[in-house]
Amino acid sequence: MQADPSGDARSIAALRAALEAGYTHVDTAEMYAAGHAEELVARAIREAGVEHEALFITSKVWRTHLGYADVLKACENSLRRLDREYIDLYLIHSPGDTPLTETFRALNELQAAGKIRHIGVSNFDLDLLKQSQALCASPIATNQVPYSLHSQSYVDNGVLAHCQAEDMLLTAYTPLEKGKIGEDSKLQSVAKAHAASPMQVALAWLIQQPQVIAIPMSLNPTHIAQNLAAADLQLSDAEMSLLNER
Ligand SMILES: NC(=O)c1ccc[n+]([C@@H]2O[C@H](COP(=O)([O-])OP(=O)(O)OC[C@H]3O[C@@H](n4cnc5c(N)ncnc54)[C@H](OP(=O)(O)O)[C@@H]3O)[C@@H](O)[C@H]2O)c1
């Protein structure tokens, strides 16, 4: 994806709204807007005056950069754009064609050098996840995968159960099904009982599951605040069971 500077002001405003509301985890990637997203994250943090140490920044190396030298270079480029000494969590964005041994040799070196704090993967099936665990010098921190009420392929393929058994986080991306999840009638009925929005219930349902965290995206300050407040929403066992039904 090419950079689109015309959207910068809106992105910066959203990032600043999130930082000012109290979000501490920012998820980005070298692939987003061809690196420009990382530059905008750095700019928003600078403008908001938030200390780097108070934040947890995730970035990702793209699937065509998984060779040993390419990973090292991609990480340096991300560090420069993010204007940071280290990345808190560095993920393989999705599986590529390079042997994982090569990729992990570079990731382990970057971690030993203090340039990345934690290592993780994204869009990895159970077999690739287990291979990664065997090759990584530290525990794999997370597998970032699509997970939402109507998108449960990483439950069905055993990845969620494996993460829960191994004390690894599963990071749910597209948790709001790009804004369409609010049409679900079960979410609407649970939301009514809590005077919450269906989106908030969708997020609460995810993060109440062991080892699951979620990374909703929003450019709207009201939605940004609502999504953060979803962390305080407590669903009953009966509500969780209702939403678990498929
Ligand atoms: N690892 C990967 O391969 C991968 C792939 C895709 C995405 N991701 C990550 O996951 C993040 C989120 O995924 P996503 O953007 O695909 O989908 P998403 O978070 O499920 O949906 C985003 C959409 O939901 C709307 N929305 C958010 N909060 C809302 C609320 N409270 N009420 C109503 N509408 C709301 C947003 O509109 P408004 O802006 O109007 O609020 C936006 O259009 C991305 O930013 C990215 O970092 C990772």
Bound small molecules, by name, code or SMILES, are: NADP nicotinamide-adenine-dinucleotide phosphate
Mean pLDDT: 97
* CA(first)-CA(last) distance: 35 Å
How much strand? 5-15%
Structural class: alpha/beta
Report the total helices: 11
Instruction: State the major sheet.
Output: 7 strands, parallel
What features would you highlight for this structure?
7 strands; 246 residues; 11 helices; binds NADP nicotinamide-adenine-dinucleotide phosphate
Give a verbal description of the structure.
The protein has helices spanning 8-21, 36-48, 68-82, 100-112, 126-135, 153-156, 159-166, 185-194, 198-207, 221-229, 237-244, and strands at residues 25-27, 56-61, 87-92, 116-122, 142-146, 169-173, 212-214. By secondary structure, it is of the alpha/beta class. Helix 8 packs across helix 9 (198-207). The longest helix has 15 residues, at 68-82. The protein is globular, with a radius of gyration of 18 Å. The two termini are 35 Å apart. The structure holds NADP nicotinamide-adenine-dinucleotide phosphate. NADP nicotinamide-adenine-dinucleotide phosphate (NAP) binds at residues 27, 93-94, 122-123, 144, 173-179, 197, 199, 215-220, 223, 226-227.
